[in-house]
Amino acid sequence: MEIKQIGVIGAGQMGSGIAQVAAQAGYSVVMMDASDSQLDKGIERIQKNLDRSVEKGRISVEKKVEILERIGTTSKIEVVAADSDIVIEAIIENIKVKSEVFRELDVHCPSHTILASNTSSLPITEIAAVTKRPEKVIGMHFMNPVPVMKLVEVIRGLATSDDVFHTVHDLAVQMGKQPVEVQDFPGFVSNRVLMPMINEAIYTVYEGVATPEAVDQVMKLGMNHPMGPLTLADFIGLDTCLYIMETLYEGFADSKYRPCPLLRKYVKAGWLGRKSGRGFYVYE
Ligand code: CAA
Ligand code: NAD
Hints:
Number of helices: 12
Bound molecules: acetoacetyl-coenzyme A, nicotinamide-adenine-dinucleotide
């Protein structure tokens, strides 16, 4: 199946990154968000990234303008749905909210449109079940920051067709990424392995074993991680980290995935990490 237009739902850190790499790869993109200010911020983020690419001599100014012109924005889901060959959803990590968006997309999209979710942990099969096209629903899990990270986990739901899998696999390659096939279980591979480490790092702070700075230093200097786990948690968003831990905890019914109470407390306080200005660290 040929992909010409890509719809992106959500203009946050992931949605804007996906829109950027899709436009860089030559696709027409329509990015939608329920919040106008998030749409503005998303476009600003893309402009900043492209400016840096111009400064570094990776693209010309003309190329930058061309990429930006390929990205349209809207606050209406119908506009994204109308002409998109695939819609990639990147909104809040909540099954009820995501299911509602998929229900609406299913109603408004042409019958050939593939519906993909950038979910970090939620069941693709359950999201697919709210649509009348479960064979066209799939997980397309990009990593943060999208313009930099190579991996895309491609997650097959129970009913995902081979055609759709291959189309999305090839699309990830066209977008300059390396797809890896994964089956539909909580947290897939990436967050089933990563998030318990982050949660454990938060427990070490909660139990007074070490300060956030010390925990991060141990993992950076001792394990060569590019960011310490608490810096990474702030970067991902503490709300997203908590939602993922809850999905693992419920999905596997195993106490080893119990979200740390300190993580819950921070999210309740609105300390969501970089995006809210405060998490384990304070940001300007
Ligand atoms: N957006 C776009 N580009 C960014 C960026 C951002 N947010 N942050 C950094 N970059 C770019 C920089 O501009 C720089 O590019 P140039 O080649 O133009 O110089 C390049 O990345 C390297 O950046 P820096 O030199 O400033 O810093 P660094 O070497 O420490 O790299 C990093 C930054 C790539 C983010 C690195 O710290 C890293 O790999 N961190 C870990 C990221 C990670 O683990 N991501 C996965 C998170 S989990 C996930 O995504 C799944 C989930 O479901 C939660
Ligand atoms: P974010 O908070 O930066 O952005 C979410 C955006 O969705 C916001 O702009 C919000 O206004 C918008 N939104 C919420 N409900 C909406 C709706 N019903 N319709 C339209 N827009 C709506 O979040 P993010 O970090 O970009 O994460 C988005 C998704 O990507 C989540 O499912 C998350 O688990 C996943 N993800 C996140 C990361 C990460 O490191 N943050 C990595 C991979 C995948």
